[in-house]
Amino acid sequence: MLLCNYRKCRVKLSGYAWVTACSHIFCDQHGSGEFSRSPAVCPACTSALSGKLDIVRTELSPSEEYKAMVLAGLRPEIILDISSRALAFWTYQPPTDTSLMAHNPQDVKVHQERLYQEYTYSKAEGHLKQMEKVYTQQLQSKDMELTSMKSEVSSLKKVLEEYKKKFTELSEKLMERNRQYQKLQGLYDSLRLRNIAVANQEAGQEPAMMPQPAVFGFPLGNAARFSRNTTPIQGRHEASTSLRACKNERARERAGKGGEATAIMAEDEEENSQGRQRLQELVDHLYHFRDHYFENHSVEDAGKKRQDVQEEMEKTLQKMEAIGGLSEGRAYTLMLKGKALNVSTDYNAQSEELLSKAVKLDPELVEAWNQLGEVYWKKGDVSAAHTCFSGALSHRKNKVSLQNLSMVLRQLRTSSPDEHAQNVMDSVRQAKLAVQMDVRDGRSWYVLGNAYLSLFFNTGQNPKISQQALSAYAQAEKVDPTATCNPDLHLNRATLSKYEENYMEALEGFAHAAALDPAWPEPQQRKQQLMDFLERLSGLLENKGKVKGKKLQSMLGSLQTSHLGPCGDGHYQGPSGQKVELRRQSLSALQPGVNTGTVILGKVLFSLTTEEKVPFTFGLVDSLEGPCFAVTVYNMVQSWGVLIGDSVAIPEPYLRHHHIQHQNKSFTFSGIRVETPLVLVVNGKVQGSQNQAAATIAYQAQSE
């Protein structure tokens, strides 16, 4: 807004105004009066205005035609120069007294800066509105794309489920067809071999007999047999005489050759027996080399074990090939070669082929069934492995089949948790039968320990079952020195130790398993996960969850007796089912073990979960200067948890002081173990049964 620069006027300008070269402006009344005199002088600054264009009368609201034509035809730089001078005039006009502004240039600069900032702000505001509009349009577009993609993903998931269902059905049909094919193939091979044996026997008894036409190994009929020197047109007497002569000659030949043939067969049988014995010794030596590897090598050589076993297998196969005089088609020979190829921990297709032929030639060869089942296990075909081990037991009860069947039962796919639990129980029974057959077999004890471990994690975590698992592992090491070099035993026992919160034993077990099999990544991964968990937990406990003093004081100040819930009003039921009156105790006053008849109440400072989701761990504190204890909760559903600031009451807490040292690192803290979230009272409320779930552990198919 422009005002008349005449000191006594200062009216708002409109219509026409007089503008001077000294950047002052006056209303039409004072301008026409003041500038009619000669010489003309500016009333505001007394500057002389002698030039032709020093005084101009201008229209403040020009017409559109004037705006369109006033600068038309001028070059852009001239237009910009004129515009900048016009803006300079405008910014020179302050809202205050012009006479004062003339004597205070600093105020003029401030006013000009303010006008520039207002102009910049208006431009930025316009640009912001435009950007908000564009952003809103893009956001709506992306929302529509996201909705479309979600719909597409949902439809693709449905299609995937349908394909999975079809794949499962086709797999089952294929397995059924394969079983039928194997039965037919076995029947065909059996009949073919029987027919060959009968044909060889008849050929030995009737050397002059002509070959008979056959289909699939069966003769079509009784073909006429004639002597090579006799034709059908000979007389009856001549034919009969010739026939009797031939028969007598054949009888004499059989009588002369009978003893010689018997001797040759005896020699062949003895040679085959010796050859099979040499093959068996070679295969036994190969497996002894693998199972007793660390008796002749240090643990530092564990990384070379697989390569050394592979090289030993190749040497064994070369020695087996060098043994001559054996029939390649004999089932026992095929079984030994397939067993030699099966010595490694990886699946071998040639071993599967040889062992499949062996069981077809001799369905009662139990060792071949056991080896073939192990091949299927390594291949990942658990159902086929189960069929092999069950089939071997149907021919003869043996500890190897019982051991393997115990392993397979826990890995079979089931349609319900109850069915899986039943398989686990059956797995324990099979392992017990294997131990009963040979109490000195370390592998049977090890498999029994694994069965108890699976039973422990699937049926309520009974401490007696965990002790049975540990006892079975200890017995395996006692009766079989090679068990101490079994990385799977150390891994499984360490897993149980971790669940029992024997952290130092768990770390040592994981480290030992990793050292025995460096190529197996799982032991090292589990050890590192446990180390990370202990390090994070110790740091949070020491810093009290990094909660500042004022906030901690405020949290503790909100603790109320009502937060004890049933633990504070005498309605708490102990393990025996009787109501017990609990006495509130501070964390610092707790004793190691079960603190019977007491209850603690504190605030949650932090929570911590592992990749396995079990246990749920949080920090609990009940005083500003007191300690912060770790609370580990087991058997909860994944959706359960407590939040920072929650009040938690724990009746009859079980306290344990942990002192852990491993690889130059030490961790010391106190922890309270809670077997189920149902015993906790959170913010005065008892936890419902829907918050409890059976604890589970991740398990991968691994040779036991």
Automatic annotation (TrEMBL):
One of its GO terms (molecular function) is ubiquitin protein ligase activity. Residues 146-180 form a coiled coil. It comes from the Eukaryota. Keywords: Coiled coil, TPR repeat. The keyword Coiled coil applies. TPR repeats lie at residues 366-399. Residues 582-695 form the Tetratricopeptide repeat protein 5 OB fold domain. GO terms for cellular component: synaptonemal complex. The keyword Manganese does not apply. GO terms for biological process: reciprocal meiotic recombination. InterPro entries: CCNB1IP1, TPR-like_helical_dom_sf, TPR_rpt, TTC5_OB, TTC5_OB_sf. This is Tetratricopeptide repeat protein 5 OB fold domain-containing protein. It comes from Crotalus adamanteus (Eastern diamondback rattlesnake).
